[in-house]
Amino acid sequence: MGRSADLPRSAGTFDGDDSGCPMLHVDMDAFYASVEIKRRPELRNRPVVVGGGHRGVVAAASYEARKYGVRSAMPMSQALRRCPHAVVLPPDRAAYTAASTHVMGILRDVTPLVQPLSLDEAFLDVSGAVRGQGRPGAIAAAIRERVSAELGLTCSVGVAPTKFVAKLASARCKPDGLLVVPAAGVLEFLHPLPVTALWGVGERTAESLHRLGLRTVADLAAIPADTLRRAVGVAGAEHLSALAAGHDPRPVEPDEVEKSISADRTMDADLVLERDVRRELLRLAEEVGTRVRSRNFVARTVGIKIRFADFRTITRVRTLPSWTASTGEIFRTAADLYRGLDLDQPRVRLVGVKCENLRDADDAPEQLTLDLSRTETVPAGEPGRMRADRAIDAARSRFGPAAVTSGSLLGPHADGASAPVSSADRHRPRAPRRSDSLDP
Predict the structure, then answer these.
(1) What are residue 121's DSSP bridge partners?
(2) Which among 36, 42, 64, 121 is annotated as catalytic?
(3) Which of 138, 158, 161, 323 is a plausible cystine mate for 166, CB 3.0–4.6 Å?
(4) How far is residue 353's CA from residue 153's CA, in Å, rounded to a whole number?
(5) pTM
(6) Tens digit of pLDDT for each residue in 405-431?
(7) Domain containing 23: what range?
(8) pLDDT of 202-240, one tens digit each?
(9) Do 337 and 306 meet the contact criterion of CB atoms below 8 Å apart?
């Protein structure tokens, strides 16, 4: 999708003809920052930035921070130059995952045709829900009301004939808006927009289009096909011409499984000791494992990403003999991949862990396990460690994400900073902490 920051904003409306508009795009507003502000009401109306240390990037920014030009994926150093008084909070993936699960549950109460794109956005096809729940615009309004009532968060919803136009509509009415693009008004809506709003137009393609004098979608729609093919290739020209004409035949794909789940962290100071890198691998393996299990997935492939001080980046992956969602197995595989790099006094700037080749845990092959204390068959990857992981997940869900963690991660971080503790965490009841080695 094109860059939503390039889109002009308009007030969201539920007026107009929404017949023939079965596609909804629901997008949570400044999701990570909004979840943090919900937990810390004293931060309301203040610029809040969620992200890593001074060498990391912005994961999310509240709308108050965006007024200063702070944007997602911006280097933290640049964000703090633009807004030096911003409140900077470390990402809390467990909290965002829990809120996302709740939101997706609300959407699936409307229709089973829900296609999540990330933690904070999804497409819906409500064509089968109209008879029982009303017009698409009314369904969108009901979703917004329920998200607000149950989570105290806001979302923006685009309603349109196609997925592409619905996504543009939700971006146009942010924050906290609802915009219906009538089937007869698609071209009127699309043509004034910049070409960078089109899905698939990145910086390089935008440069090619701008060299041809194409600034708006209307410009692109009017250019001869041969000229466009010479600029962006045959496939690119067909794709962009179809979008400029409002055509997007893609259906909502509710069974589409995420290709991978990953997490990475840029260090405030380069890591040079293997034990410090292993500590970060463990921290990230816990985060990724929790997210894999929360979606009821199992993975067959584990990978790592290591970026050095000179920005050289190495990735390694390994396919496992069986499916897993075990934090311990994810960590051991990641640590073994790092050990296999055989580095000599590296200066590591960024560490990442990912799980890919995902599938629903209920569909994963089972392996028979000899367990004299149990009589049933245990799913692949489930014995012992997996049951402990699920118990830890339950404790974190009840007492908060900081309630249970590896003993190796207690105390100072690898970069020497103390572990962040929120004001909400200080007053939250605690479950006993798990204490173990770097090999969970």
Answers:
(1) 27, 118
(2) 121
(3) 158
(4) 30
(5) 0.69
(6) 555 555 444 333 333 333 333 333 333
(7) 14-157
(8) 888 899 999 999 999 999 999 999 999 998 899 989 999
(9) no
